[in-house]
Amino acid sequence: MEQSDNRNLPALLETNANEAEQRYFLTFWAKSGTRPFDNHVLSEKLVSSLLDFANAQQFCLYAYCVMPDHLHFVIEPTVVSGSIGRIVSEFRIRTASLQFEVGQFESIWHDNFYVPVEPDPASLKQVCMFTVTNAVRNGLVSTQDEWPYWGAVEDVFEAV
């Protein structure tokens, strides 16, 4: 999969946003040409690490999806969790050792980016749907329930 996966993302992303009470769509790409998350143990460890990290840092994790070569997630930082830059940096550090636990000795991450999401509930819902249906859109499975590496806060889909 190319790193242009976000080309189909709805135009619901802001470019000039205040970080306080702002939601973000994030993408972390694996090293170019690699598919480390074809390793199901590593994918499970990444999901577990993301959930633990959200809990420890006290930010809201609205949705996520681990793909063979990247990770998408939607979050809302809090005063406790700090800035989006801090969250991104700490997540990269926290997940850097995961590949060693499954016998892969090269760094997982190549690049990452994040963009603010429009604050209205309809936009959040659409961006979360884009995130969790990534495996279906990319032809990895026929239905979302077949893909084990995704999750979302239920009420995000009831927001509208």
Give an account of the 3D structure.
With 160 residues, this protein is an alpha+beta fold. It has one domain (22-156): Transposase IS200-like (Alpha-Beta Plaits). It is 31% helix and 21% strand. It is built from 5 helices and 5 strands. It has helices at 40-57, 84-95, 98-101, 121-132, 134-137, and strands at 23-30, 60-66, 70-76, 109-117, 150-152. The chain has a 5-stranded antiparallel sheet, with helices on both faces. A hairpin with a 3-residue loop joins β2 (60-66) and β3. α1 packs antiparallel against α2. The longest helix has 18 residues, at 40-57. The termini are far apart. Mean pLDDT is 82; it is low at 7-18.
How are the secondary structure elements laid out?
Layout: E1 23-30, H1 40-57, E2 60-66, E3 70-76, H2 84-95, H3 98-101, E4 109-117, H4 121-132, H5 134-137, E5 150-152
Antiparallel strand pairs: 1-3, 1-4, 2-3, 2-5
Helix pairs in contact: 1-2
* CA-based gyration radius: 15 Å
Record field, number of beta strands? 5
Strand order of the largest sheet: 4-1-3-2-5
Number of domains: 1
Separate helix tally: 5
According to CATH, the fold-level topology is Alpha-Beta Plaits
The helix/strand series, from N terminus to C terminus, equals: EHEEHHEHHE
CATH class: Alpha Beta
Beta-strand percentage range: 15-25%
Helicity range: 25-40%
CATH superfamily: Transposase IS200-like
Distance between the termini: 32 Å
Mean pLDDT: 82
- Catalogue the unreliable spans: 7-18
CATH architectural label: 2-Layer Sandwich
- The 3D shape can be described as globular
**Describe the biggest sheet?**
5 strands, antiparallel
